[in-house]
Amino acid sequence: MNRVREVIRQLVELQERDQKILAVEAEIASLDPQRAGLRQRAEAARTRLDGIRQEIKANESHRKDLELEVESQREAIARYSIQQYQTKKNDEYRALTHQIDTCKRAIFQLEDRQLDSMEKAEQFQRELDAAARSDQEVRQTVDHQLGDMDEREAALRQALAGLQEERTRIAAGIGDTLRGQYERLLKHRGARVVVGVEHGVCGGCHMILPPQVLISCRTSQELVQCPNCSRILYFTPEMDMSQAGLR
Questions:
Q1: How does pLDDT run across 94-136, given as a tens digit for each residue?
Q2: What percent of the chain has pLDDT over 90?
Q3: Can you give the pTM of this predicted structure?
């Protein structure tokens, strides 16, 4: 087998492993943000539930305050009634009657507010029941999805370990100098370091290649790099050189 073609084959194989490794690492990296999003969803459902509970608690406290105020007004009416019975002055009697009427109006208004509070309590209870169901459903869904993601991550890490082992094996078969060159290109050019030539252009930067470079690629007598982006070039019979005038 042609030595250059064999080197290219090894480099392409190494590049394929690197591309797969990068893809798996990217998927693993995406899992934590997804987990955070799921936990935020569960937390939002729980916050909504807790908020309704706080509203119920505040409404109950308000209703008790109203009950105490009603009781206070009734006690005042009882006192004024006793004072009316005891007084013999008409003006005092009328003043006490006015106080009693004022207390009765206050009780009427307080009882209206009590009714509003009871209606709110019923509404809050309906909202609480709905929020509790939603919280349970969301948590079950989130727990299930988190479990699936844990399993997915374990499978990805296992696959990653296998790919890294394969990469180590393939890289060991490539000379130190060429492997170092590949690694430098990988660092600066990303996962596409070894690229094909078709229609006379570099498969990496898509710049038109000089005829001599195309001829060198086709003959495979030496390792050829793109004069523009320095990527390693290769040509196979399946690639089309027609537009380069070399077919």
A1: 999 999 999 999 999 999 999 999 999 999 999 999 999 999 9
A2: 85
A3: 0.74
Q: Are 200 and 214 in contact (CB under 8 A)?
A: yes
Q: The dihedral of CA 45, 46, 52, 58: what is its sign?
A: negative
Q: 42 with 210: CB under 8 angstroms?
A: no
User: What is the Cα–Cα distance from 196 to 238, expressed in whole angstroms?
Assistant: 10
DSSP-assigned beta bridge partners for residue 202? 197
Q: Where do the H-state alpha helices sit in the chain?
A: 3-86, 90-172, 176-189, 211-219
3-state secondary structure of 158: helix
Domain at 30-172: CATH architecture:
Orthogonal Bundle (1.10)
CB atoms within 10 A of CB 199: 14
What is the biggest distance separating any 2 CA atoms in the chain, rounded to whole angstroms? 131
Q: pLDDT per residue over 173-221, tens digit each?
A: 998 999 999 999 999 888 899 999 988 999 999 999 999 999 998 888 8
174-178-180 Cα angle (round to 5): 105
Tokens 């693993």 locate to 28
The domain spans of the chain are 30-172, 176-244
Q: Which of these, 186, 211, 183, 184, lies nearest to 197 by C-alpha position? A: 211
